[in-house]
Amino acid sequence: MYALVDAVAFYASAEKVFDPAIRSKPVVVLTNNDGCVCAICPIARRLNIPKFQPYFKVKHLLAKHKVIVRSSNYELYADLSDRMMNVISRFCDKQYIYSIDESFLHFTGFTPLINDWHQYGHLIRRTVWRETKLPVGVGFGSTPTLAKAANHAAKKLKGFNGVAVIDNEQARLRILAAMDVADIWGVGKRLAKKLKQLHINSALDLAKQDPLQMKRLFNVVLARTVDELNGRTCLEWDEVRQDKREIFSTRSFGERLTDPTVLKTALINHCTIVARKLRLQRSLTKRLLLFVASSPHELNAYKKSLVYELPTSSADSCVFANAISEVFAQLYQQNVRFYKCGVGALELSSQQFQQSDLFTPNKNNIKLMKCLDSVNARYGSNTLALASQQQSQAWHMKREFLSPQYTTRWLHLPKISCNL
Question: What is the reported pTM?
Answer without folding.
Answer: 0.79
